Amino acid sequence: MNGILSRETLVKWAPLMVLLILVLFFTVLEPRFLSVRNLARISVSAAPALMVALGVTFIIIMGSIDLSMEGTVSVSAVIFAFAFLYLGGTLFGLAWLALPLAVLVGAVIGLINGIVHVKLRIPSFMASLAMGFVGTGLALLLTGGDRIRVEDEAFRGLLTERWLGFPIMVYVAIAFVLVGWFIQSRTTLGRNFYAVGGGEELAHASGLNVSKVRILGFMLAGMFYAVGALLAVARIGIAETATGNNFMFMSITSVVVGGTALWGGIGGVWNTLVGVLIVNVIGNGMVVIGLPGYVQDAVLGLLVIVAVVLSTDRKSISFVK
Amino acid sequence: MNLERIKPHLPWITLVSLVLIVGIGDSNFLRPHNLISMVADIMPLFIMALGMTLVIFIGGIDLSAQSVANMTTVVATVALPTFGIGAALLCVVAGLAIGAISGFITTKLFVPSFVSTLAMGGVAYSAAQYLSGERALYMDATLRDGAFGWMVGSSFGIPHEIFLGAVLLLGTLFLQSRTTFGRALKAVGAGELAAVASGLSVTRIKVLAFALSGMLAAIAGLLFSVKLSGGSPTLANGFLLPAIVAVLVGGTPLTGGVGGVVNTLIGTLIVAVIRASMLYFEIDATMQQMIFGIILIIAIASTIDRSKLRVVK
Amino acid sequence: MYELCKVDKKFPGVHALKEVDFFIGRGEIVGLVGENGAGKSTLMKVIYGAYQPDGGTVTIDGKAVRFQNPRQAMEHGIGMVFQEQSLITNLTVMENIFLGFEQQFVKFGVVQWKAMAVAASKQLAKVKLDIDPSTITAQLSFAQRQLVELAKVLTLEERVDGDLVILLDEPTSVLAREEVELLFKLVRDLTSRASFIFVSHRMDEVLELSDRVYVMKDGAVVDVVSQADARIETIQHKMVGRNVDKEYYREQKQKPYRPDQALVKFDRVSVNGKYEDISFDLHRGEVLCLVGTEGSGREAILRTVFGLETPTSGTVSIKGSEIRKFSAQSGVERGVGYVPRERKVEGIVAGMNVYENMTLSQMKNYSSAGVLRIGEEKDLARKWVDRLAIKTPSVFKDCGGLSGGNQQKVVLAKWRSGGSDIILLDHPTRGLDIGAKEDVYDMVREMCDDGVGIILVADTLEEAIGLSHTILVIKDGKAQQVFHGKPGDKPSLYDLVHYMT
Amino acid sequence: MSFIKQYIEQEKLNRRNFLFASAAGLGGLAAGGMFGPGMARAAIADPTIAWSYRNRTNPYWNEIVSGGEAFVEGLGMSKDALVHLINEGSSEKSLADVKSLLARTNGELALAIDTNDAPNCRPIVEAVAAAGGYVSTIWNKTDDLHPWDFGDNYVSHMTWSDEKPAEETARILLNAMGGKGGVVHLGGIASNNPAIERLQGLKNALKDYPDVELLAAEPADWDTQKANQVMSGFLTRFGDEITGVHCANDTIAYGVIEALRAEGIEDMPIVSYDGNPQAVQLIAERKILATVFTNPHWGGGISASLAYHAATGAFKPSDEPNEHREFYGPTIMVTPEDAVEFKAKYLDNVPTYDWTDYWGPSNGQIQYK
């Protein structure tokens, strides 16, 4: 086992290989799976989830976890929709200001989340879980349970306008993956996430302000959640308390499937991209090949396990929790 | 008063304070009948949380618990006419099996429990859908009373759910504090490597913890199914997060080795009281969830014993 | 240039530093010795800014300073090379070197990796380490990592105008002898730019390197000796308040082992990638010492005996029967006890109390049908607390809160009380002070008298020679030479080093 | 402390009697209930009025609640007087909340509720009856449970027979498809009764349209986003074969419309269910061909009214015939032709209902198959 087929290489590329095998598998069963149209559909359904998963990737690299995404997405989506309509309801007017506002909202919630976690010294699992409840509750309080429609043709153009067969929102998502990659590899903050994940006490002793890195990490994650919220609204045209539903377990599963370790320090943006695609390919593929609804949960579960098993370097870890 | 000495008592102090706050707001809350009834109703959730405690105690998590409970409501209802009380055995075995498989996947295949249990939950949910024919089912009243009437009756003014919960609590407490398994569980939670170096079979202990969690989730589902006299693949929805919250609020953090089943009893009761307080203080419906979250932060912040956490991750 | 004057530090219930005076001149190497708990680590923490003193003054070149955190200390040229490996292994070497100080390479928010690599190479050159700065740290050897840490601290040179003070906390604990010599040479070369405070339990090394030695006891400096006047025995006497005689290793208590009673037989055993073709016999009453450099395969052999590694070829027999199934459990059942090097992580379970730790490996003996007999556990623990003079307020005390020496005693008690008669000691005295070390040596002799066989990986060569009946020298996973030693007729240091390297 | 002991004794007796009553079965139940605390109370002068429902994120429940609030305001109280119990899709929370409220109000409660899952209905009704409160249920109830088995305390159960209306919307859809092609169905949570009935309605209609194929039916869990993803999958799987979409409710239809819009498909025939304002708007724009209005506003109001008036003794449920205890709610078909008129009548100006006309708009006694 050496040369290009060394264990490290295999493990590194395993998630991508799993993705390709899955694509091949579904294509053999249903050739239409591999059409540009269907790939566009998968991308559209993956785009909001990808943004959320990117956000939580940074947190997981730090060895923490964030369960607040459902609340953050809902609040960002709802405030965006309110502001968008209040400011005129079309992107050509002042309403574009609602876009940065939504991201700001995400940042603020992330910041509060980070402060509660770091300053009150509550483990992130608990702090963010509770913040998630607060977020969802806040969205409910703001809307009173109503749904807000965002009909603006220009904004919905994210979904309806296509370049090379793919809606614009797919390109937006790719752009944010590049932003994430830039943060991860070319900024101090991004590298510090890895330092904290690799050894928090050591990083602290090296003079790194770990608390600050953590809080900024949660804030950054909040901003990515807000971008996910914007894409989710663009996809459905509705902002509501339920906009954030189902993002929590799916995004974390995607991150793990992509090969980012829950104990921190390993993985990154590209892993998450592959992980999100794996989960969405399975979801779409099961419908496309006509698997009965009641077995889909089981098949998704089993395939996720297989994917994680294949992309874990079992020799390098002594145990997992 | 020395703060260090109060710390271990914070969970129940928090609980008593909450009860008193609600009681001062509305003395109806303190009526024994109401308190007993509230405790009886929280028992299915408590039993699930008991199982969750064992897994969180070793630093893992069991996200399959709700789906396992869903599955057992269906299994119990479907199997009741054929097997009678044997349906209970079927449920318990099914829960044990799902939990054991999760444990095996976690320990042997190195899939984090967050993902392995979520995935096995999907399997359980599919099984529930398949077995139920994707319908809500109900139990025949006579059959139910014949086989499971003892679960939901009442003696000495105390509903039997409480006895069942108490028996399981004492059982797990015994397991946790008096048996080699409980000791090993603590060792694995607090120092897995040291447990290995002491020759403990860590794999077996962890698989057993997950299996017990599955079993208790199944019992929770069974009790809920009997209480509601029916089953459906979505019947136990809404159990999972409160069960996790109950464990965490009780003071068993995810870092492992700290806390225990008694903490979970207190945590579950705290959740029940917070929930009831929403009604007693007439909190507006659209505000309840937000306030629940805020109280949760306060409750966790005041119950966790930070001196046992080396790094707050 | 750097001076502490009557520095005082109190913690609840402990007077950790008692009016300590401390001075270090430009380019000087100062040793700092004392038993565990003497106040060394508190003093170091005050120096590098982790603690703020309650009284007294800290001056640099006559100017009073007060550091709120390590970062401020760094800005004044004070850096720390930590005892435990403190590099973050998933980062590259250059990221580790500049961790927390990346800002200098950031242009418009973007990290300039090339500039950082160039700067890192310059730092590595200072410590004469020729590696690619973008190597992932996990791929380096322990010795290389130690040098990277030194390089990291030396970045202070560029950042700080004044002179540097560098603390070295047990820098040699994971190094082999020749690596230690390399490090010392480097430190001496670097005195042109920095002063060093050298903290170590290895007295010989302290004396070898330091110009002056501060001796601490009970939170106070009890003596300052210059290299010329220093003698190990005197210093040790000051540290412990009693003589450390030539019988330090209890050689007089060493008795012949019983060659007819083999406990462990290794016959041409190999583990792929770890060691190959190793054969030896361990007998009742024998101390067998495995000597070699870090990574030579010593630990892997211990782990094989315990059952944590499965041989790829060869046969292992324990007490006459050949082992086919390798697992820690079966090892324990066969009477093997393992005292691991990482005491806090692998030895004891922090968070569990004394009796819980003691019976962890032998719960079977203290339970019926899985139910523990806790009363008996406590009796056992009390017995062994007395027998080994374990300093603990009660058997309910969390082991994580005991001192290193007492933790080690708990680990030994765990195996001894369970009747283990093959004890594997991996660096059993690492990080222990002299008193605690002597206790361990006493226990080794007692165990031999009881017919126990011991395989030892020693902390120092002297310890290996002093304690062992038999020494097996290993290099790169292969056996080099076997030495037999009786009291008064032991191999010399030189003999061993000759075969090790 | 003797009063506590006495109290416990009292409760013990009550509970035993109640359980005895449940065990006695059909005939004995009403009589057994006579010993219960509820029966000891002839009428409750000023009961707390509460609505317990799934969540605030679905427009359907908001409509239900608006009806409940309108009823409360009709009594001359502020609409804040209505207590909301939200179960978030958790039967466990639903039951616990009801019990807490019963304790707080000392049983002086008029409760309208959807119990979230059918099996949850029995313990809720039993709890309310045991405490002497009054309850009206909608939608979820197991077939073996009937209001008349509980004397007066279980006032009524209302549900909607969805099979027929769903069949009618299906016919509109199939006609719009020209009687040929392929149809897909996106359903609710698979085990929910309405989801089952609405799919069955489509299947019934298809018998008369041999040239239309039911390509697939999958649950979309009443959820817009899930529906969006399922529809995307269908588009790949069947492509142009899909010439019509049958949705189990309006929120699913929104997701379907957006999935189609993403593909530039604007003229796909779609029918849905529930008659939410937004859906009616879409019908007026001919983006949806038909929906079925179940008048949740009235349903929400009348359920609260029934419970309230039974509690105050305005009418005695046990004197009413069975068709007044278990009945179907109203269904109104909305199509593009009458959408504007419908909107004006029911949505833009919510009609003022006579909340004492309990059974006027109802649709006959519930039939069990």
From TrEMBL, chain A:
Keywords: Cell inner membrane, Cell membrane, Membrane, Transmembrane, Transmembrane helix, Transport. It is a multi-pass membrane protein. The chain crosses the membrane at residues 12-30, 42-65, 71-87, 94-116, 122-142, 163-183, 215-234, 246-266, 286-311. InterPro entries: ABC_transp_permease (IPR001851). It is found in: Cell membrane. It holds the Pfam family BPD_transp_2. The complex is composed of two ATP-binding proteins (LsrA), two transmembrane proteins (LsrC and LsrD) and a solute-binding protein (LsrB). Part of the ABC transporter complex LsrABCD involved in autoinducer 2 (AI-2) import. Probably responsible for the translocation of the substrate across the membrane. This is Autoinducer 2 import system permease protein LsrD.
From TrEMBL, chain B:
It is found in: Cell membrane. The chain crosses the membrane at residues 12-30, 42-61, 73-97, 109-128, 148-175, 207-228, 234-254, 261-281, 287-304. It is a multi-pass membrane protein. InterPro entries: ABC_transp_permease. It comes from the Bacteria. Keywords: Cell inner membrane, Cell membrane, Membrane, Transmembrane, Transmembrane helix, Transport. It holds the Pfam family BPD_transp_2. The complex is composed of two ATP-binding proteins (LsrA), two transmembrane proteins (LsrC and LsrD) and a solute-binding protein (LsrB). Part of the ABC transporter complex LsrABCD involved in autoinducer 2 (AI-2) import. Probably responsible for the translocation of the substrate across the membrane. This is Autoinducer 2 import system permease protein LsrD. It comes from Albidovulum marisflavi. The lineage of its organism: Bacteria, Pseudomonadati, Pseudomonadota, Alphaproteobacteria, Rhodobacterales.
UniProtKB/TrEMBL annotation, chain C:
Residues 2-243, 258-501 form the ABC transporter domain. Pfam families: ABC_tran. InterPro entries: AAA+_ATPase (IPR003593), ABC_carbohydrate_import_ATPase (IPR050107), ABC_transporter-like_ATP-bd (IPR003439), P-loop_NTPase (IPR027417). Keywords: ATP-binding, Cell membrane, Membrane, Nucleotide-binding, Sugar transport, Translocase, Transport. It comes from the Bacteria. The keyword Nucleotide-binding applies. The keyword Chaperone does not apply. GO terms for molecular function: ATP binding. This is Sugar ABC transporter ATP-binding protein.
From TrEMBL, chain D:
Residues 49-313 form the Periplasmic binding protein domain. It comes from Albidovulum marisflavi. This is Sugar ABC transporter substrate-binding protein. Pfam families: Peripla_BP_4. PANTHER family: D-ALLOSE-BINDING PERIPLASMIC PROTEIN-RELATED. It is found in: Cell envelope. Its main location: other. It comes from the Bacteria. InterPro entries: Peripla_BP_I, SBP_2_dom, TAT_signal. Keywords: Signal. Belongs to the bacterial solute-binding protein 2 family. The keyword Signal applies.
